[in-house]
Amino acid sequence: MSIQVTASGQACGATVRGVDLRDLDDDAVASIRSSWLEHKVLAFPDQELSDTDLERFTLRFGPFGNDPFFASIDGHPQIAAIRRTATETSSLFAENWHADWSFQEFPPDGTCLYGKIIPPVGGDTLFTNQQAALEEMPAELRGQIDGRVAIHSARGGYAPDGTYGDDDESDRSMQIVPSDDAYATQRHPLIRIHPETGAETLYSVLGYIIGIDGMETDAGRALLAELYHWQTREAFQYRHRWEPNMLVMWDNRCVLHRATGGYEGHERLLHRTTIGYNPDVRAA
Ligand code: SIN
Hints:
The protein is α+β, with helices and mostly antiparallel strands. It has helices spanning 26-39, 51-59, 130-135, 139-145, 155-158, 217-231; strands at residues 4-7, 14-17, 41-44, 80-84, 110-117, 125-129, 149-153, 185-189, 191-193, 200-202, 209-212, 237-240, 247-251, 255-259, 268-275.
């Protein structure tokens, strides 16, 4: 059976059929990788994957990433459960636009998320294409960010006094582990070159950025707010609707993503791995 890739018709994203992710030869991996770079988010419906299968799939695309602040599931140190019970009242996890772990020196190239329990309504994941956001950015705004470097940190989310810190709601079912490590900072340019496609992309992650090098706090915040308004416009978005047994992989180097709610009274459970930074991949 040959691999069929159907573009979403939105700003990024495609659905891939005709492949069994438990049994990939090198040609299939190369074909998936090329579609991933083109569409940035790939959804594979109807995949019966065990946790070991999910790990094996992830490793075909790079090393595992280093996932801080999450407990892993039993027996699988590289897999985190993205979980919400039917009765949970805590704030939604990952509801702000972000690229995974942008506060690391080498953030993960990609993320894999596998749908296990999917609510009948709501719970979509939104993506926004940051290559397109940069390509279409007004020259005046682009002129303000050229050469600028942002300071990233996990403190707002994962420090003991952060959103998911010591005062987080008690009925959160996700296993989050806040830590003082979240106060560390890391600098990344606001415009980066995607190492595999060679394309310029916007790398502004409001929730993880605490300032811009060389700018006064208020001026930096105002610029980040203007960028946020631009980069999250509907024109750059793809809305992903989940099904059970669907695997989605996205490219953190050129998309942001966020969770959505709307499934109160229903359980939601997905298993997640990250594809770590791979220094060996380069634009052809
Ligand atoms: C995530 O950001 O890892 C989770 C996204 C989602 O729950 O839809």
